[in-house]
Structure formats: C-alpha cells, structure tokens
Amino acid sequence: MKIFQLTAIAAAVLALPLEEGIAARQTPSCTSPKLRKNWAAATATEKQAYIDAVLCLPTLPSRLNVSTHDNLYDDFTYIHTQLSTPQRIHAEPVFLPWHRYFIQVYEDALTECGYTGAAMYWDWVADSGAPASAAVWDPVLGFGGNGSASSDNSPDKWRVVDGPFRDLRPTYWSTLDQPDPHYLSRDFFPAIPQAGFQEMLGWQYDQSVMDTITPLTTYLEFRIQLESRPHAVVHFAIGGSRGDMGPFTSPNDPMFFLHHTMVDKIWWQWQHDDFANRKLAYEGTRNDGLAASLDDLMPMLGLADDKTVRDYMDTEGGPLCYTY
To answer: Which CATH class is domain 9-323?
Structure first.
C-alpha cells in the first residue's frame, strides 16, 4: 500500500511561542468571534457536545456524487485525498489557508448536528513532554487512545479499542482507488529508551522547536518549516505505519481537525505578532510552477464552494469569525 509521505517526514523525525490569546479585534463583519479552545481547557459539556456532533457526521448524507461512500464524514477524507493526488494542498503556499478553510467547513458541518461551539485544538506543544498522556486521548471525554497493536496483520490490527470513536469505520485508507472499510486505527510512534526519548516524538514539536519557527519573518520560510516539521511529525507520531493519521486519508481520524486547528493557531499567532504586515503575507511558487496569488482559488470539489485565499487570511474578516 501507498503510505502518505508527509512533507519531509524522514527529515523531521531526525530534526529538531505560543501564547494563549490576543484580545479579539472587532470588525463590522465579525462583532462576536467564536473562541477556539484547547481541548484540555474545554468543559466536560463542551467536550461531549463536540464528540456527539462528530459521531453524527456519518449519519448525514454525502454532498458528493460518488459511488464509493454515502455519508458526510467520508466526504472530508475523500476531498482531502483527492486534492493530494496529485498534490495541490501540501508542500504548497496554499497549505495554511486551504486547511484553515477546510476546518471551517468541518465546523460548519458539526453545526448541522446541533453543535454550537467552535473548533478546538490539541496543544501538542504544551503536551510534548508526555504526548500519549494528553487529555485528548481520554476514553470518556476524549478521542480514545492508541490502537490495539494485535499480533495479526489484519486491516484492523491497529484498531482504536476505547473511547467514543472505537466503532467508527472509515471507508478509505491510503487511497481512493479501492475502498478499504476498517475500524479507526492509530499506531503511536514508540518511545526510544536508549536515546532517552519519550513516545510519540514529542521532542520534535516542543517549545524549543517552535522557538526556531515562530521568529521567522517571511511567510515562505514560516510555512515550509511549520508544515514540514511539527505538522508532519504529529501526523506520523499518531499514525505510525498503519494508523489513519499517516496517509492522505488522515481526516478519517477526528484528531486530524484538532491537530490542524493547532497548526492554524500557530499561523494565527504568527500573523498577529505583526498583523499590519502579515495579515496578507502570502508567497511562494505553486506546484504547477506559477507564482502564488491571494486570488488563487481553494478547491473543495463540491464539499463547499471554492473560495479565494484572500478571503481566508483574516480569522475575523470575510466569512470567518473566530479567534484563539
């Protein structure tokens, strides 16, 4: 099977300041921005409401005209994978704004299931010292823990066996060419005791790593480092060799959205560190060889309308209305 080689995963595994909030800016288009919270800081009621809404998504009809699945939950995996083969949303200037839009589409979908809160994030920087013990893996008010690591080689070898998503059965794994229904899977990267490293590669996304990324002053440098280092490593740390967070089909795991909301928070913080100059900071060369433009369209292939990058550069302007 093809395994999703996230940008510079191999280098990131070997390679090596986030602040909790800035006062919300008030704009005519966004007078009451939603606050996106760290999962660990959310109330039990907020967590349960989020979990219930995610569990509702597989019961809603697909928005896509495809024969291989029929529900909204699989739509998100299908779109992400379709846009990754060939690559249009990773190792691209559009990586950050496209995923910002994708998270918003997901949050909007949760509202169809009665959710009234905002997207949430896993602060993997704060939890980097003991990632596998983070609150997000709680079996009751979290996403369940690691896969079962059974000795057989069945498709469900790494099935998540606890938590509210233990019976979740995504349709795809690694590719859209052939449906591969399976139970939600995780394969936490193991500890390396002889090197003194804890599980899940936490030393690759701790504060010292972020301190080498957040001071970068150009969008190009910042995006490349954020995408290829902590973003890629966290995917690999959760997904391992057979977990759902590894391949392009990574939205199979509801943790995908908490992870990418954290990535968005880091970008948001970087923008607000010099908002006058970074609100519209966007540059680079697209994979088709053309220069990136704020007027580039971000495709959603029928899951939602295509939008321009420009519309999603400010979380409190245009169609967005949230803060951290």
So the answer is: mainly alpha
